[in-house]
Automatic annotation (TrEMBL):
<dbReference type="Pfam" id="PF07690">
    <property type="entry name" value="MFS_1"/>
</dbReference>
<feature type="transmembrane region" description="Helical">
    <location>
        <begin position="236"/>
        <end position="254"/>
    </location>
</feature>
<feature type="transmembrane region" description="Helical">
    <location>
        <begin position="266"/>
        <end position="283"/>
    </location>
</feature>
<protein>
    <submittedName>
        <fullName>MFS transporter</fullName>
    </submittedName>
</protein>
<feature type="transmembrane region" description="Helical">
    <location>
        <begin position="100"/>
        <end position="121"/>
    </location>
</feature>
<dbReference type="InterPro" id="IPR036259">
    <property type="entry name" value="MFS_trans_sf"/>
</dbReference>
<feature type="domain" description="Major facilitator superfamily (MFS) profile">
    <location>
        <begin position="4"/>
        <end position="382"/>
    </location>
</feature>
<keyword id="KW-0812">Transmembrane</keyword>
<feature type="transmembrane region" description="Helical">
    <location>
        <begin position="156"/>
        <end position="179"/>
    </location>
</feature>
<feature type="transmembrane region" description="Helical">
    <location>
        <begin position="289"/>
        <end position="309"/>
    </location>
</feature>
<feature type="transmembrane region" description="Helical">
    <location>
        <begin position="200"/>
        <end position="224"/>
    </location>
</feature>
<keyword id="KW-1003">Cell membrane</keyword>
<feature type="transmembrane region" description="Helical">
    <location>
        <begin position="70"/>
        <end position="88"/>
    </location>
</feature>
<feature type="transmembrane region" description="Helical">
    <location>
        <begin position="330"/>
        <end position="352"/>
    </location>
</feature>
<keyword id="KW-0472">Membrane</keyword>
<feature type="transmembrane region" description="Helical">
    <location>
        <begin position="38"/>
        <end position="58"/>
    </location>
</feature>
<dbReference type="InterPro" id="IPR011701">
    <property type="entry name" value="MFS"/>
</dbReference>
Length: 400
């Protein structure tokens, strides 16, 4: 494994910690600023929307500089956002700090995915992308519980100072270990935008929004669901999030291993399994043991879709992968924001704390339908070669 992947994983660990730790610290932050928990929840929504906006915006700016330098600049922006969050005198400033940190998120994973894929042989690309994303999944096993614990024991501002320091470590690692990669010839906006004319790229992104949205519909409301329905104590929620993180870690490894060989069958299995498990979660949530097992499965099936979906976008965005890759990271977060909002709506409508699981199941099922449609379209274009644009020599052959 190239050491450069480790540097990318450290950056991913810092970003993953700052994204998810907020869920564990919302009560403390809300109390500190004297705002309600739903208002403090804007720190989650604001971050997700910042990723959606920042991904294409900063990636387009990034086509002007080399990828290595851009990754370092993004880590710098991430550090500034977390320092601002740690020092924020008011809730508005805290929200601004979250948005600044989130702007770096999509472009870092988007450009990082392309860099990771170029560090290894063609048949190991999805595995390399998965290695970088391991940082994000380990953040949920180690970073988030630890950050929540430190935040509750010493104060939430300390957590953000530590995360900013992690960003500096990631930045130093990228400076030292990531090789300079030649800027792709003609890497300008018009060329990058051509990728979005390919319906397969748009279908893969729609699968990302719906599939990952299914996961977040359930997980955003895990605390009230586990305490009110399953009967867990509030302190146990941290450990349930660790289980979710372990599921994510295992799913990401499996996704990375099989996406290079059997990409579409893997997507059918994971999206179908996710829809089924989320539907069953409405029943298993009433039993402590079954609820815990279901949380692991939701994390595993949800994150097993990440390497294949990211690779699917890279495969289909022939010769213009950077912007498409970053926008797909934005799509994950658009799914998060949309699903959290839909889950909140069904709870507000009085359907109970398990109702978001049904929302999640429907979203995952819709993603499966899109995956089948995408494969059918691909078969049709393969049978009619005249309708297919010749891929550039640099393009990766799509796996069927």
């Amino acid at each position: 494994m190239p050491l450069a992947l480790l540097a990318l994983a450290v950056g991913a660990f810092g970003i993953g910690t700052t994204e998810f730790v907020i869920m564990g610290l919302l009560p403390e932050i809300a109390a500190d600023y004297g705002v309600s928990i739903p208002t403090a929840g804007l720190l989650v929504t604001g971050y997700a929307l910042g990723v959606v906006l920042g991904a294409p915006l900063l990636t387009v700016l990034g086509t002007k500089v080399g990828r290595k330098r851009m990754l370092m600049l993004l880590m710098g922006l991430f550090v500034v956002g977390n320092v601002l969050s740690a020092a924020a005198p008011s809730f508005g400033t805290m929200l601004a700090g979250r948005v600044v940190a989130s702007l770096a998120h999509g472009a870092f994973f988007g450009i990082g995915s392309v860099v990771a894929a170029e560090l290894v042989a063609p048949d190991k690309k999805a595995g390399a992308i998965a290695t970088m994303f391991t940082g994000l999944t380990v953040a949920n096993i180690v970073g988030v519980p630890l950050g929540t614990y430190i935040g509750q024991a010493v104060g939430w501002r300390t957590t953000f100072v530590i995360v900013a320091a992690l960003g500096l470590v990631g930045m130093a690692g990228i400076a030292k270990l990531v090789p300079e990669q030649a800027r792709p010839e003609g890497a300008h906006l018009r060329r990058e935008l051509t990728a979005f004319r390919n319906p397969q790229v748009l279908l893969a992104m729609a699968m990302t929004v719906l599939g990952f949205g299914g996961v977040f519909a359930a997980i955003t409301y895990i605390a009230p669901m586990m305490t009110h329905v399953a009967g867990y104590s509030e302190g146990a929620v941290t450990w349930l999030l660790v289980l979710f993180g372990i599921g994510m870690f295992l799913g990401n490894l499996l996704g990375g291993r099989f996406a290079d060989r059997r990409l579409m069958p893997l997507l059918y299995t994971t999206l179908g399994g996710l829809a089924l498990v989320l539907a069953l979660f409405t029943l298993t949530a009433h039993n402590k043991v079954l609820a815990a097992i279901t949380v692991v499965l939701v994390g595993a099936l949800g994150f097993a879709t990440v390497p294949p979906l990211q690779k699917r976008v890279l495969d289909q965005a022939h010769g213009a992968p950077t912007l498409a890759s970053a926008v797909n990271i934005g799509a994950f977060n658009l799914g998060n924001a949309l699903a959290a909002w839909l889950g909140g709506m069904v709870i507000t409508a009085g359907l109970g704390y398990t109702a978001p699981n049904w929302v999640g199941a429907l979203l995952a099922a819709a993603a499966l339908v899109l995956a089948l449609w995408s494969a059918a379209l691909e078969r049709r274009t393969t049978e009619a070669p005249t309708a297919v644009t010749a891929p550039s020599p640099a393009a990766v052959p799509a796996h069927h």
